[in-house]
């Protein structure tokens, strides 16, 4: 729940929470970290529990209260990230504050429209980096539930090359993984 507090505190701490998740997922699933390797069975079991909503997990698995203790909420991080991702996309396409959800309007008070555009472009990049590390193992029903493929496709219409490159990386993970 400390990371959830970081997420809700400010845009700066929200970015930090994304960096924490990306690095953690890379260590657990992609890199050969000796410290993580000694606890890999536990950590690789906890990641889906934390990222996936409880409703989706209950469709696929028997309830496991000891694992659910580590989840910050029943919502799961994927839903939280996807909602913010969609908020960022809406702003980047429309460039209107009215399109932001109430919580994101509060977080961007005092920012100019240009600062919000740059900040949300950066967040799109950060979230794509996180998605890229977790799409290898996340349940397909979970990313279908949040409309991630649709959101990724919309990103291809943005002018930033870095964003497009990360989207292609995410799509490659989605289309090459085994189901």
Write up this protein.
The protein has 179 residues and is mainly alpha-helical. Helix content is 73%, strand content 0%. Helix 7 runs parallel beside helix 11. It is globular, with a radius of gyration of 16 Å. It starts with a helix and ends with a helix. The model has no long low-confidence stretch (mean pLDDT 86).
What topology does this entry show?
Elements: H1 2-9, H2 11-30, H3 34-37, H4 40-51, H5 54-60, H6 65-68, H7 77-94, H8 102-107, H9 113-134, H10 140-145, H11 148-155, H12 161-176
List keywords for this structure.
mainly alpha, 12 helices, globular, 179 residues
In the predicted model, the low-confidence regions spanning at least 5 consecutive residues are none
* Main sheet specs: none
Number of helices: 12
> Which band does the percent of strand residues land in?
under 5%
- Identify the overall geometry: globular
Specify Rg, calculated over alpha carbons.
16 Å
Tell me the total number of β-strands. 0
Q: Gap between N and C termini, in Å?
A: 31 Å
- Structural class, from secondary structure content? mainly alpha
SSE sequence, one letter per element: HHHHHHHHHHHH
Helix coverage percent of residues?
over 70%
Mean pLDDT equals: 86
Question: What would you say about this model in short?
Answer:
The chain has 179 residues and is mainly alpha-helical. The chain is 73% helix and 0% strand.
